[in-house]
Amino acid sequence: MFNLNINTNPCWVVRGLSYSSIFYLNLFNKIYKLNLDRENMNYTKTLVRGSGIVFIVAIFSAILGYLLRILLARNLTIEEYGLFYAVFAFVNVIASFRTFGVGQALIKFIPEFKLNEDYSSIKKGICYYSLLQFFSFILIFGFIFLFADKLAIDYFKDLNSINLLLLLTLASTFAIFESLFHVLFLGYKKSGHYAFTTFFQMLLVVIVTFILLKFGVGYLAPAYGYLIASIIAGITYYILFRRVSPKFFKAKFNLDFKFFKKLTLFGLPLTAGAVIGSSIGQLDILIITYFTNLKDVALYSIAMPVSMLLRQFSKSISLILIPVSSEIYIKDKSLLIEGIKNIHKYILITIMPIALVMAIFAPLIISIFFGDEYLGAVWTLRILAVSAIFYSIAYVNSNILLGIGKSGLNAKIMVGLSLIALVLDLFLIPLYGIVGAAIGVFVASFIMFFISFIYMKQNINYFPSIKLFIKIVLLGSLFLVLIGLLRNLPFVNLWAEIFVLGIISIIVYLVGLLLFRIIYIEEIKILLKRIF
């Protein structure tokens, strides 16, 4: 149900396509001198196809998520919309403490256990993970049940929040099964299965919510939607995983406190990172709820998710990076570094133009999808869209560090991002409202962008190409100027303007990538040959 912010998945490539790479070639003529062995080609296929699947399905899942928000925005009052997402954020943040980072630890260790056919250790880890979640949720549900009235009066300032609190907490309890199978699918490198589960569950939520809204359930409809979807999805995932790994269910289980201690010690530093990663926008909402009103919560709750679309690319990469980078780091550090170069390059050239378009057309995006009453979120969306560029790189860097066993550094990056944003929020939100929250996210993301590279330099001796970064920024600036000039042309209607601007801008941008020598036709050919 809730964002299980587990970072892991494949996606690299040889200096060319849009996902990343394992093998980076500084000059095209060097490519012909290299012997690309079968193992490296298998990594490329695994990484590119895996992240490609996750990215594509994540986009569709995100679309469903936005469809849910549009559905609610069109059927609830702006205050009811704000109330639901205020409570949703509160439960999300509380629930994110439930695993003490053990889920992330398992995603790193399961590939190693599977390689050694040690299914007993996988089963021990999963059982331990399940028990942790179960007992954590008993405490969480007890806390919310006891203090629901007080929270409704003093914090949410709306008694309707009581039922929402109880329903969403219950749904979060059933989401134990979702997070359990997410860990297994990611650990087994079954990116397609993982992608399916996220899409399937979001689809269930949208369908159930739509039906309940039609029956007049009102603001409780999405809460029931998440609850019912969590139950159905848990049963479906169990059936699916039985087919993936019959050996898992046949493996023996025994108590091994040393093993549990190992997982916990590795995972504890990740707890804060997991909380922050899964609630980077939720913490803002908690503070906005306290200092402002539910209308502002509603406005921020449409701006943040729209900007989050930009992060799907980096999250798709990160969902595979932990097991893959762990394995590659052990075998060949240089191979990892060459792959990272392309990861950064393709994240930037993919996200930057989309972020700029989102910033320019923010009023149009909000008006079309959510309605004119939400136009107060325009500047918030613009700032968050640009901040997503820096956040995405920092996010990927933190997961690379996690993949090579530097869980403490991963936590420092994510916690640092959170603390900076939190301090700025406490100062800026009372003064500037939701725009202040967006500024806090931007400043925090920008700072952690640079700090993450300092850690990369210290631990794997890698620092990005400043020349390449300048080229991409310059191209992005020209892209922005081009859109500004094209918008002055007379168009028949809005959709004609969007179509013409889109086609011309994409063509010019792709040509610019070649002219600036950011990408090469030859590398794309080689990449496609290695993938297919």
Name its key features:
532 residues; mainly alpha
The major pleated sheet works out as:
none
Give the number of domains: 1
Unreliable stretches (pLDDT < 50, length at least 5) are: 1-44
Termini distance? 35 Å
Mean pLDDT level: 76
Helix percentage range: over 70%
Query: Which shape, going by the Cα principal axes?
Result: globular
- Structural class per helix/strand content? mainly alpha
Number of strands: 0
Strand share of the residues? under 5%
Contiguous helical run count: 20
Which series of helices and strands comes N to C? HHHHHHHHHHHHHHHHHHHH
Q: If you compute it from the alpha carbons, what radius of gyration comes out, rounded to the nearest whole angstrom?
A: 23 Å
Textual characterization of the structure:
- Mean pLDDT is 76; it is low at 1-44.
- Helix 11 (282-291) packs across helix 17 (407-460).
- The two termini are 35 Å apart.
- The protein has one domain (28-531).
- It has helices at 28-31, 38-75, 78-95, 102-115, 119-155, 161-187, 191-214, 221-244, 246-250, 257-278, 282-291, 294-308, 312-331, 333-360, 362-369, 378-403, 407-460, 466-486, 494-515, 521-531.
- It is built from 20 helices and no strands.
- The protein is mainly α and 532 residues long.
- Helices cover 80% and strands 0% of the residues.
